[in-house]
Amino acid sequence: MIVQDYNQHVHTLAFQLPKAGKSCCGDSFFIKATDEYLICALADGLGSGERANESSAAISSLVEKNDDKDVEDLMKLCNEELKDKRGATVSILKVDFKTREFTYSSVGNIRFILCAPSGTYIYPLPILGYLSGKPQKYRTQTYTYEQGSKFIIHTDGLVLPGIKALLNKGESVEDLSRQLEEYTKTLNDDLTYIVGQLF
């Protein structure tokens, strides 16, 4: 499955595959770009199959309904939403096009990296664990970004040895996605990645 979204501020492409032998993916995502902001949520339900999807889909649905809220509040709402469910690792990215800033928070093993045209990289470290309704600490960070910056958010189903070089080489999100294809051939897990470029 491939989903694209773009306007004059951002171009995103999301790619998703279920674990080999499974009809249902345990990952879910939500992306929305407006004239003011981009919101992007990625959740990886614990395990695989329908129970994992139930948890991750609850996250994408919640963020879709509350996309005007800030990242810290959304993470707290996501944690509450997963009470009595299996649990999920969750990452939320929100980009403010006016201030050229983005805010990011993550719990679990979802990875995010942004590469600026100047050659600098932003690689926020997630909090270990997963959301399950239990009391949880969050690390929410805000950064400025350069015009033309590219980013990738991906679940642990995608194993990338040279992610920085890849982001540097990719001319566009389609080009980045083509280069990622070789890493999607043998799957031991559900896989989702979202690549984007900020203008």
From TrEMBL:
Residues covered by the PPM-type phosphatase domain: 11-198
Top-level taxon of the source organism: Bacteria
GO molecular function: hydrolase activity
SMART domains membership: PP2C_SIG
EC number(s) from the headed UniProt entry: 3.1.3.-
InterPro entries for this protein: PPM-type-like_dom_sf, PPM-type_phosphatase-like_dom, Ptase_RsbX
Pfam families: SpoIIE (PF07228)
EC supergroup of this enzyme: hydrolase
UniProt entry keywords in alphabetical sequence: Hydrolase
Protein name (record): PP2C family serine/threonine-protein phosphatase
